[in-house]
Amino acid sequence: MKVLFIQLLSLLTILLSASGKTECRLSSLPPWSHKVLAGGCSRAFAQAVLYPVDALRTLAQTRDGRTLADVGTGALIKGCGQTSSFALFTGAFQFGIYGVVQPKYGPLIASACGAAGSCLVSVPQEVLKQRLVTGVYKNFREAVQKIYSSEGVLGFYSAWKPTVSRNVPFVIATFSSREVLQRKIIEFKERNEEKKGQMKLSSGDNLLIGISSALVAGLATQPIDVIKTRMMTQAASNAAPYKSAFDCASSIIRTESWRKLYSGFGQRAVYMGGLWGITFTLEPVVTSYLRNKRDAQ
């Protein structure tokens, strides 16, 4: 897995830095590499577009119930460019690892590996994004400097356990649902149009698949998402810090009611539905484009 991480990171760096020699390089890269670039670009674009919605979700889940009136409307886009760039690598890891593992081990194991691998990038992204949105730091540079100086490298991985506990089942549910829905839609089309083996999914199909898969996964993992947000944004609250993820969950249920574990679900549903809808729509388009460019060489 470590070797695969290094290969993916190196490959994405090459692809991103390529200029006039891109076409030459594409012809020498393995087929799964297209998934790396396509997944990374699709995820980064989707996350940047939906960043304000995710900011509202973060505020809704804070311990002291912060609102835009408390942090200002600028919080909706604070750190958007910098933290969304992390999504380029998050998507690259997710789709790259999935593309390599899925043919041999199936979607369940492939999606779990992709989710776990992408946490290497997505956890620091979440820490920075949520502390910027909640007003803990004024800007991205200050966030990086202060987290590193006061907490060290591990500070960027605070609350990594609940984050991984949320991401792995979420991505497994999303990618597995995607496989099932793709197969069912194609079977339905073949039954009605009598073109067995020739039917393809449209962009509209992929958009619907992405939204549906994300909503199912989001409902199942919402309590973990709330716990993750609470622990990552503790610095924004004057209350005594939680000792652990379990302490956070039990404290919420005991003092605020179990319903608080679903706070921000509306905002998260819009965000995750849009995020995965856009990602699953763009990824096959970009992948197809790269393959066509390679075949034309």
Care to give the gist of this entry?
Helices cover 76% and strands 0% of the residues.
Description:
By secondary structure, the chain is mainly α. Helix content is 76%, strand content 0%. Helix 10 crosses helix 12. It is globular. The N terminus is likely disordered.
Low-confidence region ranges: 1-9, 19-24
**How many beta-strand elements?**
0
* Morphology call: globular
Structural class: mainly alpha
What is the beta-strand fraction?
under 5%
Helix percent band: over 70%
The span between the termini is: 32 Å
Calculate the mean pLDDT score and round it. 84
Radius of gyration (Å): 20 Å
Secondary-structure element order, as H and E? HHHHHHHHHHHH
Number of helices: 12
The main sheet comes to:
none
Question: Notable features of this structure?
Answer:
297 residues, mainly alpha, 76% helix, globular
Helices and strands in order, then pairings?
Blueprint (H helix, E strand, L loop, with lengths): L1 H16 L4 H7 L4 H17 L1 H10 L7 H4 L8 H26 L1 H27 L6 H12 L8 H34 L9 H30 L12 H12 L8 H31 L2
Helix pairs in contact: 1-6, 3-6, 3-12, 4-12, 6-7, 7-9, 9-10, 10-12
